[in-house]
Every structure is written in C-alpha cells, then in structure tokens.
C-alpha cells in the first residue's frame, strides 16, 4: 500500500539572491554538494543561509546502499585540486562552520582518508577560525586511515550508523553495523575529536530496536546524535514502512535523553549536517 508523504515533510522551493550566490560559488569552484546529489529536503533552507555540505571525491559511490540517491558506479580519479577548491568556497561563503562529506571510495587504499585530511588542512590555511565537521564512510575500519583523520584533527567526526542492526544488511549490504560502531569508538578513544552519528527511521524498525541502537552508540562514546525520517528517493529504493507522527519524535527525544545523550537533534527533516553548528 502506498504511504503518502505527510504535509510536514514537504518543503517549498525557494530561489533567492542568496541561494543563487551559493550555487554560483559552488559552480565556480567545480564542487558537488550532498544537498543536490542526495536530494536533501533542506537544501533551499541551507542555501538561503549561505551554507552547504560539500561532497568530495566525485559523484559516484562504490557501494550501493538501498536508501541513497547517489549513483553506484566506477568512480573517477581523485581531483588533487579539490581540497583547495573546497577551502576557497568555505572562504567565499564566509563559513564559520564547514561540513564535508563524501561518496564511499572502496577503490582507494585508504578510502580517501588523506583526501579528507587535505581538505581540512587547506581550510585551516584560508579560514583558520572555521570549525570543521567531516561525515565519512567507514574506511573499511582501517586504523591507518582513521589515524590520518585524527592527525588532521577536525572539530567533529561524523559517521552515520544509518539504521538498526536488524535492517542494516538490507539497507547497507556492503557495510557492517559493528564496523561502524568500531570506527566511532576508535576515534573517541584515540583523540579529543567530538564524535557524531545519525539514524534514519521509517524502514520498519521497532522502538526497541531504535533504543538498542542508541545504546550501542552511547556505549562507544558517541557525543552527538541525529534522527530523521527516511524519505524514499525513487521507486528503485527501499520503500517507506512508516512515517512517524510529530509527537513520536518527542518520545525519541526523551529516549535519547534517558540513554545519556546531551546533544541531539531529532525531527522529521533532520539530516546529518542540518544546523550542525548548533550541536557543538
């Protein structure tokens, strides 16, 4: 049975001088954003605030997650100038808080960890006061890759668990639930970097499974939590099993608080990088 998108999940398209300026700066620096590639519902709101989440290492992902709108294909070689282009865009946008994410690049020995580190270093050169959050793949849980991230020292390291253990393999067939937890735990134990993770809901999980996942994240020292509604990008992606009612998000907020999270953002349109600067 088709489940209709609730009105509170619909956002109107806003085109203003500010959104035009953001698109112009991104185009000038030849940059991709997850806002565009993943069809984020908050894109126009963020652009209106002169911010965007940079998507590095190309448009093609080496994994085929069943919820994600980014295409799975053979990726192109890394653009060595991309870190500088990201840094220039951060400066042009006058960002006080920059968020960088990427496609998964299992074809690279370090999964692109050095490329992330180079982006951080270039931003530090041009905008030394800008705080940086990175949202990364799992790097196949390679410690040498994670060490490169630790040396670059972003303010926030985000790796999304995405869904509960019992649904994980269906949603992320090439990923591993325990690997994702281990990545967060390694960063937490070996650095002073703030850790963060996010969860989609609406794929058929139970409240008990959500609670188990939040407890798992808290047990590995995850500092910041985000939870938002899964919205099906196309008919080829996993269907939505449930649209959570607004009052149910209050229940989830209380659950996160009871487990011990102090910093969390939970709501229908919450995404990993949405209003990210407000959570640290």
Task: Describe what you observe in this structure.
The chain is 38% helix and 14% strand. It has 280 residues and is an alpha/beta fold. It has one domain (14-279): TIM Barrel. Strand 4, helix 6 and strand 5 (156-158) form a beta-alpha-beta unit. The longest helix is centred in the middle third of the chain and has 14 residues, at 113-126. The chain is globular and about 45 Å long.
Outline the fold blueprint.
Elements: H1 17-28, E1 32-33, H2 34-37, H3 43-48, E2 53-56, H4 82-93, E3 97-102, H5 113-126, E4 131-135, H6 143-152, E5 156-158, H7 165-171, H8 177-190, E6 194-201, H9 207-219, E7 224-229, H10 246-259, E8 263-266
Parallel strand pairs: 2-3, 3-4, 4-5, 5-6, 6-7, 7-8
Antiparallel strand pairs: 1-2
CATH class: Alpha Beta
CATH topology assignment: TIM Barrel
Q: State the major sheet.
A: 8 strands, mixed
Q: Total number of helical segments? A: 10
State the CATH architecture. Answer: Alpha-Beta Barrel
Shape descriptor reads globular
Overall structural domain count: 1
Q: Class by helix and strand content? A: alpha/beta
Relative helix content: 25-40%
**Order of helical and strand elements:** HEHHEHEHEHEHHEHEHE
Question: Average pLDDT, to the nearest integer?
Answer: 90
Q: How large is the share of residues in beta strands?
A: 5-15%
Strand order of the largest sheet: 1-2-3-4-5-6-7-8
Radius of gyration: 18 Å
Number-wise, the strands total: 8
**CATH-level-4 superfamily name:** Aldolase class I
């Amino acid at each position: 049975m088709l489940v209709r998108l609730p009105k509170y999940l619909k956002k109107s398209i806003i085109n203003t001088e500010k959104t035009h300026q953001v698109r112009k700066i991104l185009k000038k620096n030849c940059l991709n954003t997850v806002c565009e590639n993943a069809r984020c519902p908050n894109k126009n709101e963020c652009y209106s605030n002169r911010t965007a989440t940079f998507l590095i290492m190309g448009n093609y992902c080496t994994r085929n997650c069943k919820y994600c709108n980014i295409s799975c294909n053979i990726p192109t070689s890394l653009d060595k100038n991309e870190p500088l282009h990201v840094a220039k865009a951060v400066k042009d946008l006058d960002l006080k808080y920059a968020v960088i994410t990427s496609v998964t690049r299992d074809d690279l020995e370090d999964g692109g960890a050095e490329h992330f580190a180079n982006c951080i270093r270039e931003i530090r050169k041009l905008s030394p006061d800008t705080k940086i959050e990175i949202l990364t793949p799992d790097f196949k849980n390679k410690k040498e890759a994670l060490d490169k991230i630790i040396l670059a020292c972003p303010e926030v390291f985000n790796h999304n668990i995405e869904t509960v253990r019992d649904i994980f393999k269906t949603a992320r067939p090439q990923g591993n639930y325990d690997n994702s937890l281990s990545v967060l735990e390694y960063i937490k134990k070996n650095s002073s970097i703030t850790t963060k993770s996010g969860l989609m809901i609406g794929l058929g999980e139970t409240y008990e499974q959500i609670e188990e996942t939040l407890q798992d994240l808290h047990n590995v020292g995850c500092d910041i939590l985000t939870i938002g509604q899964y919205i099906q990008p196309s008919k080829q992606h996993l269907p939505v099993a449930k649209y959570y009612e607004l009052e149910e998000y209050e229940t989830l907020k209380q659950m996160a608080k009871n487990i011990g999270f102090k910093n969390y953002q939970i709501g229908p349109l919450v995404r990993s990088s949405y209003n990210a600067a407000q959570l640290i």
